[in-house]
Design brief:
The structure is a homodimer of 396-residue chains. With 396 residues, chain A is α/β, with parallel strands linked by helices. Chain A has a domain at 193-300: Rna Polymerase Sigma Factor, Chain: A. Chain A has helices at residues 138-151, 165-176, 195-209, 227-241, 244-250, 270-285, 288-300, 311-314, 335-347, 371-395; strands spanning 23-32, 38-49, 59-63, 90-91, 96-97, 102-106, 159-163, 183-187, 321-327, 352-357. In chain A, a hairpin with a 5-residue loop joins strand 1 and strand 2. The longest helix of chain A is centred in the last third of the chain and has 25 residues, at 371-395. The interface between A and B is large, with 54 and 54 residues.
Amino acid sequence: MSTEAKNSVGGPVDGSVGIVTPQSLHFDERVQFKSGDTLENFDVVYETYGTLNTAHTNAILICHALSGDHHSAGYHSKNDKHPGWWDNLIGPGKPVDTNRFFVVCSNNLGGFQGSTGPSSTNPSTGQPYGPDFPMVTVEDWVTIQSMVSDRLEINIWAAVIGGSLGGMQAMQWGIDYPNRIKHCCVIASTPKLSAQNIAFNDVARQAIRTDNEFYDGRYYEKDTVPSRGLRVARMLGHITYLSDDLMAEKFGRTLRDKKAIDFDYNPEFEIESYLRYQGDRFARSFDANTYLLMTKALDYYDPAEAHGGNLGRALASAHADFLVVSFSSDWRFTVERSREIVKAIHDNNLNVTYAEIEASQGHDAFLLEIPAYLDVFYAYMDRVYNELETLKEDLS
Amino acid sequence: MSTEAKNSVGGPVDGSVGIVTPQSLHFDERVQFKSGDTLENFDVVYETYGTLNTAHTNAILICHALSGDHHSAGYHSKNDKHPGWWDNLIGPGKPVDTNRFFVVCSNNLGGFQGSTGPSSTNPSTGQPYGPDFPMVTVEDWVTIQSMVSDRLEINIWAAVIGGSLGGMQAMQWGIDYPNRIKHCCVIASTPKLSAQNIAFNDVARQAIRTDNEFYDGRYYEKDTVPSRGLRVARMLGHITYLSDDLMAEKFGRTLRDKKAIDFDYNPEFEIESYLRYQGDRFARSFDANTYLLMTKALDYYDPAEAHGGNLGRALASAHADFLVVSFSSDWRFTVERSREIVKAIHDNNLNVTYAEIEASQGHDAFLLEIPAYLDVFYAYMDRVYNELETLKEDLS
């Protein structure tokens, strides 16, 4: 594979993969989820960037987090203002270099952006699934991603990469499909949620589920959305994604477009205005049932649980090489959580590269252009690529 | 004063002040608040424990926090299951020893437990004030407390003591009435809220204010309450009162009365059940408009702001001795915030006793029976008492 290869979806433009078009796969088969529920006849929407080599060895799977989707890099149109959510990481000349790798990112089941989810029509009723959509777990998503891999004729991923909830999926790939993954990159993640993490999730869920417009999840049929609950949920979530220090630095106690306090309930401080804006934007664009499902998948994930709480034993099947990255100011999934993952990998005598990045941005840091973080990723992905090249020479 | 003196409200029973009866003061005068709004004709409800000595020198003022009130110690009836909110600290033989001191605790204006607040009848309309109740600040509460002091003929407080939002009031007493306060005890408090603190408060307020039953604060007239919003606000608040470690230790990922996950939206984990219970209980008993006012008073407090951000200069008028206490696991008002207060006191060459208590309970620690914390309080209040005794000898 030449480093001059063009990616398949628009060509490198200013370090971007350019304009990308989502694709979709339909599955007729019946899948049973961890909950025991089943689903048949479903779609998975995905995007690809870069070119799959003839040996099908240069494929990278990107797993998305709570509010992410399949659109991880590039733009959907010329007028698209924002690129995909991990555009800092993925593109020509970027750490996940689309001149070298064929990158795949699919939207998890339960989403609302094209993959079948609560807002999709339930063929047995002709109405949206709503609350009848199965509770999907990290393990289920990995199963579905393995089915996507089969369809794309990718037998082995050069790497599976994910941040936060996506990092859980990457880790589960290492556990469930040890022969299909060479490198496992677990970024800003955790082997399980803490009680505090679950607590925040449940407050968010209660805000949504007690919204008058929620209608037990059947709001589609009422032609409404529980936007007030979703707004509060997102405002709360947003606090946990940022660090205390970053908020202090970025907002502090700066007043909102005024010189003195007004003593009313309009935003007095910038931070209030910022959070309400974020909440409003999210409530207009995100599906509440998807949000509920994603937070539940986070809560449920605990691979060590079936092994008496021993994460090392949970990872006994794995034999990928690992990259684990944590961020100093991330108080949602702290560096200690990543160290637990590193310890469990060590317990199995597997290779692991671990980086604790000094960054003030909190959990959100994993999405941002932080030089020390990108440097680690460049170096690691160079190694992944060099292994592919060595393999090619060995074969030739 | 004899240490055998009985307190005035029931006598020492098992270290308790016993049965107490709230009292009330009516004020006819017009008071102007920091916001510019005024109020006339209002009531302040309060409780007292112990006996005021003839020289009126042994009085202690207790200032309450967000969800507190005037009932800081003892019981309201024989069947009362829970004592006042600071019963661990106040009582015969306790750190704030009611055999030695005359303890006063009044309910802040804006409350709903007897002091005039949004749920009280506005004489000019015959309806509850609701959103027309003035926005009250820490400084306003201190003004009102000084009026209560006058009525009770207490010219000088031996100590003003408060935790959290109550600590802000104690500090403001030190600033506004330096000649009326000998000791100022600021517990688990902060000189101002951080952006993150304000953010959490605003999420809570938005949950309440966007509840369909809020009716712009005029829910009394609709014979309803915004209980769903208040429930979410309290659930969220509760997370910030507990430490991550304590939640992990107390709840972890323990399931709620079951052996396996149910994959539904009922509480799966103990922590969900606990928080929802706390939220439900609070929503049944607390007034939403009071909650809004209290969180705004927290947001607004920033004595340094008028002094270019210099807290030392804000405290220039003070000449009390100070006790400052913080708790290691308090992430709402961290030890660093208390150290800022200590520094500002040092800057003014005032006496300060500072204790950072190792405790896992988070912000809530200030309400709990933690031996190292109570020891500090015993020692400090001994000093306060011994000064009174010395003074008495000097006078005799």
